[in-house]
Amino acid sequence: MIKATSDPNGSASRTVDDGVFDAVVVGAGAAGLNAALLLGRARRKVVVIDAGEPRNAPAAHMYGFLSRDGSAPATVLELGRAEIARYGVRLIQGRVDQIDHGYDVRMVGGRVLKARRLLVATGLRDELPDIPGVRERWGKDLLHCPYCHAYEVRDQPLAVLGTHPGAVHQALLLRGWSDDVVFFPHTLELTALDRERLQARGLRTVEGEVKQLVIDGDRLRGIELTDGHTVPRAAAFLFPRMVPRDELLTDLGCAKDDSGWVVTDRSGRTSITGVWAAGNVIDPRAQVIAAAGMGSAAAFAINTDLLDEDVDHAVAQSRATVAGDGR
């Protein structure tokens, strides 16, 4: 049994049989919620399962989303949950342990939900370097995406930590928001071309391994090197190692590309029949607004696929009825 989400207009909640869902959506971030919204509006029977671990939880604000610019990530998710509830979409807090090829969705604790179609929108996790201060300041004044957060620290003294090959591009990009950007190669091996490009862009490079982030008064104050030298900075950026939460897709046998990411078509359809994926689980570059769009595209495709199956079934029933009448 599933207890239905309470109606935002105040109607009493009720308990209904699980039965077979038209679609089970795993993950209630922007991609999963937007897909559920469209499928609910299409009057499909939909359930969303969420473990409650949003990637952007450390951030106080979310930017770059039209009409929601500057909103708290938790607020956007709360609004999304209320919206899907209006269309009868059910939300379960829990974790999916396994998905069988027959579209049985097995949750931790033993519950099994049956689905006609699946959408996996479980996102990714950011693996951070083991540098003191990094975890404490992550999502505050230690940032990742310039498009998401650089405007808020514009014209301030910025640092970029060389913890990932993408850090050089990140530093070059950040020069558009500040004239004072210092690149710390840390353990990253820079090529001669890297150094030439950084210098041409007007960035200063400070050699030496980073020892820690200097924090005082709940604010980043600088970057300390192992030689004891500290470079004052107001904010810092680093490129984390992004690891997709794609175990459910991998266990199903979904094809991956040479970089290890699950391959889909433009609608999010994977190589496994009846299974879609959307959001950061398949695209590390997708911002919240892009992930929401991916969820929308997947929902359109899923509903069309369900429609084709429904029509085929109706035609088969009609033919069987005609044949029976003929006898």
From TrEMBL:
<feature type="domain" description="FAD/NAD(P)-binding">
    <location>
        <begin position="22"/>
        <end position="292"/>
    </location>
</feature>
<dbReference type="InterPro" id="IPR050097">
    <property type="entry name" value="Ferredoxin-NADP_redctase_2"/>
</dbReference>
<dbReference type="Pfam" id="PF07992">
    <property type="entry name" value="Pyr_redox_2"/>
</dbReference>
<keyword id="KW-0285">Flavoprotein</keyword>
<keyword id="KW-0560">Oxidoreductase</keyword>
<dbReference type="InterPro" id="IPR023753">
    <property type="entry name" value="FAD/NAD-binding_dom"/>
</dbReference>
<protein>
    <submittedName>
        <fullName>NAD(P)/FAD-dependent oxidoreductase</fullName>
    </submittedName>
</protein>
<dbReference type="InterPro" id="IPR036188">
    <property type="entry name" value="FAD/NAD-bd_sf"/>
</dbReference>
<dbReference type="GO" id="GO:0004791">
    <property type="term" value="F:thioredoxin-disulfide reductase (NADPH) activity"/>
</dbReference>
